[in-house]
Amino acid sequence: MDDVSRLILLQDLRDEREKHAGATEFFHAIKDSSERFVLRWLKLAKTKKTRKARILELAELSARGEKLNPEYALELLFRA
């Protein structure tokens, strides 16, 4: 997960953020540690369907000026 450590954004995440007004600006404003958490959460998606759903959720949250709740994200990871 070297790309996560270097905060390299996935193209599909960048594309989805651009569809939601304010999402890109909000995402750039969050702390690096929060961004790493989000990127790890995306990388750990086991299927394309899950990854796509997570990306959409992140874009929608960012557009509303909200961060991903770590407890919620961890719950989803361990539910599967």
Produce a short descriptive summary.
With 80 residues, the chain is mostly helical. The chain has helices at 2-5, 11-18, 23-29, 32-43, 48-63, 70-79. It is built from 6 helices and no strands.
- Overall helicity: over 70%
Give unreliable regions as ranges.
none
Listing every helix as H and every strand as E from the N terminus to the C terminus, the arrangement reads HHHHHH
What's the story with the biggest beta sheet? none
Structural class: mainly alpha
Number of strands: 0
Total separate domains: 1
- Helices, by number, come to 6
Quick one: overall form? Answer: globular
What percentage of amino acids are in beta strands?
Answer: under 5%
Distance between the termini: 21 Å
Rg from C-alpha positions?
Answer: 12 Å
* Average pLDDT, all residues: 84
